[in-house]
Each structure stands twice: as C-alpha cells, then as structure tokens.
Specification:
Blueprint lengths: L11 E2 L6 E2 L2 H33 L3 E4 L2 E4 L17 H24 L4 H19 L17
Antiparallel strand pairs: 1-2, 3-4
C-alpha cells in the first residue's frame, strides 16, 4: 500500500519495488544514500552553472592587441555555420539532463511520504548548498530549472 500522508517508519519502499527497508540498518543506509544523493545534486548544479558561466562568458580576451580564444574547446562548432550546436552548448545540455534526472529522482523519493527520507533529502540539499553554492564568489544567474528541487 502506498502512503498518501507522511509517516514515520523504518519500513519504506523507495523508487523501486526491490529497494525496501525492513531493518534499522537498511533504513539508515537508505537515509544516508538519500543524503549523499542530495549533496551530489547540489554539486552537479554548481558544476552546471559554472560551466554555463564559462561557456557563455566572453570567448575572447585581448593580449597585446590580438584576440585570443580563452576557451577553445567550448567554442568549437559541431556543425559548421551553426552557433546553436557548439560543444559548450551540447555539454551544457547533457549536464542539465543529468541534473534534471537526479532532481526528479529526489522528488520521487520524497513522494514516498516517509518522514525520514524527506528530512534526509532536505538536510542533504541544505548541506550541499552550503558546501558548493553559497560561496562569496557566487554570481547571480537566472536558470530555467523545471525541477522542484533547489
């Protein structure tokens, strides 16, 4: 039976029918996995945002009056004549897809309605944000993220 309200129990089925906990050890390991996965989500989001800043920043800098490409691999075009298919944009799209998948898995885990899973994910997201995204060098970037996480 699927719960439709929050419950506090060590018996939980998470994401897959084979991922069931029936002891305190398996429940603790499940909560630890949720916590680490949440931190990893924030790490990947930080990497994706930094990569986006790097790939969209000014591609050339001037050195002694000549233009030098600062990020040569990110600005190469996959299809000649098309600025929509640069390596940087494709890599950014792949990172966005991976991060969206992680975010949706976290959302589905929360939808198990287990209180411990919810707390582990929320605390993991907060710790991950503290570790990777709350630095003094943070730049404001508006990002369209369809995931409810972060």
């Amino acid at each position: 039976m699927m719960h439709m309200t929050f419950y506090w129990s060590r018996n939980v089925t998470l994401l897959f029918s084979s991922w069931q906990t029936d002891s305190w050890i398996s429940y603790a390991l499940t909560l630890l996995a949720c916590f680490i996965f949440s931190i990893f989500y924030q790490y990947m989001e930080d990497r994706r945002l930094r990569f986006k800043l790097l790939s969209t920043s000014a591609a050339s800098t001037t050195t002694n009056g000549t233009a030098v490409d600062a990020t040569p691999l990110l600005n190469k075009k996959i299809i000649a004549g098309s600025s929509r298919w640069s390596v940087g944009r494709v890599a950014g799209a792949v990172l966005f897809g991976i991060n969206s998948a992680i975010g949706y898995f976290l959302m589905l885990a929360v939808m198990s309605f287990n209180g411990g899973v919810f707390v582990a994910i929320v605390v993991g997201l907060a710790v991950g944000y503290l570790l990777f995204r709350s630095g003094d060098d943070e730049q404001v970037v508006v990002v369209d993220n369809p995931c409810a996480c972060a």
